[in-house]
Amino acid sequence: MLSVAELAQSPNAIAPDYSHANVAARIMLTGHVHQAIPDVAEKGYEEHWEALNKYGEERWELVYSKADTVRRGFASRIDCDPENIALASNIHELIVRFLSALPLREKARVVCTDREHPVLARQLARLEEEGIEVVRVASSPAADLVERLASQINDRTSAVCLSSVCYETGAQTLELDTLLPICQKHGVELLVDAYQSVNVLAFSIQDYNLEQAFVIGGGSSYCQMGNGNAFMHVPPDRSFRPKITGPFRGVAGGIDPAKSPIPYPEDASCFNGSSYDALAHFRACWVFDYFERRDLNPDFLHDINQHQLHVLAKNFQSFDFDPSVIALTTDIEYLGGFIAFEAPNAKLLCEMMRDRGVHTDYRNNWLRMGPAPYLCDEQLGDGVHALEEAVKELQRLGLG
């Protein structure tokens, strides 16, 4: 079994498993938006090619079995039943189907925060143009966000949408487990974007009291399986009829427009879409298998991430940066999987660090650094040292 110490040392114990991405020689602090894919996932491409060409139209049984494996994989990461998992190629598809299941004609009001991921924020803004009332609650301070969201819920509200970790600042949403009962009191659906929690924090549907909530996430960052893999936990033992609907060939055969209502599956698959490129699932199956073989479970990955965030913070604090130039404003214990520094010139700092071979990213005035389990402590220290050089250059230019 691996230990945090084995991943902290140089060379990192699992870095050889990512040789194609050359993670041992690169400082990739964009783990919150993209992590390297383990080499073993390449086998999924060959397997998918074989399925397309050797099995042709008879490949569907294999394809569906891969989808079932992916459901089980995501379910194991969030502590829920695989039958409650709907799959899609991206979270936008799932968000649109979720919104289409809401009674927006009767309850044309949605509550969210002012810092949601653009996938959700843009879609809600477009609905707002069509007359839906969108109430945006300030995401900061995080300490009382849930309380302030709850105060906006009333009987005209269809849904509350928020992230488990703030998209810009990395701050965790505290007391998330108290929100669902308030929503249920008013007949309001709860959608939690857990993309920044799954496979990096010890995120449990049960522990967060989200069994009757919609929870979305995907595989292109912390799950290390690339694009094309997204999921949504659907509340069990309830009937949903999303207006944006897949063909559901297995449900009552073809559709007779003269008959109403149109039938739906009675489980999470009622939110499934139509045909899709199954390559992403073939790749994901190999990655989930890799996690199992390496015992990279959510609890262990949480421990690794916490260690790495503390290393980044300790190195940052050692340089005694001018807080007007760049500052760490949130304690590590309240952060999700990445660390965000408030910096008026975040974009320029990001570019300067990239010139030094260190990959970070930024959102507005926040410079974001996301570690990954295949990075050693030395690489993390080198990353912050590159930040120090960038800040000095910024000051030489008279911008800091």
Keywords:
400 residues; alpha/beta; seven-stranded mixed sheet; three-stranded antiparallel sheet; 35% helix; 12% strand
Please explain how this structure is put together.
Helix content is 35%, strand content 12%. The N and C termini lie far apart (46 Å). The mean pLDDT is 95. Strands 2-8-7-6-5-3-4 form a seven-stranded mixed sheet, with helices on both faces. Strands 9-12-11 form a three-stranded antiparallel sheet. The protein has helices at residues 4-8, 42-55, 60-78, 91-100, 118-129, 145-150, 179-185, 279-293, 298-318, 346-355, 377-396, and strands at residues 27-28, 85-88, 109-113, 133-137, 159-163, 189-193, 214-218, 230-233, 339-342, 358-359, 361-363, 366-369.
Q: Which oligomeric form is depicted?
A: single chain
Sheet bearing the most strands, described?
Answer: 7 strands, mixed
Radius of gyration: 22 Å
**From N to C, what is the helix and strand string?**
HEHHEHEHEHEHEEEHHEHEEEH
Average pLDDT, rounded to a whole number, is 95
Number of strands: 12
By secondary-structure content and strand pairing, the structural class works out as: alpha/beta
User: Which shape, going by the Cα principal axes?
Assistant: globular
What is the first-to-last residue Cα distance?
A: 46 Å
The fraction of residues assigned to DSSP E strands is: 5-15%
Low-pLDDT segments, ≥5 res: none
Given the structure, what is the number of helices? Answer: 11
Strand order of the largest sheet: 2-8-7-6-5-3-4
Task: Report helical residue fraction.
Answer: 25-40%
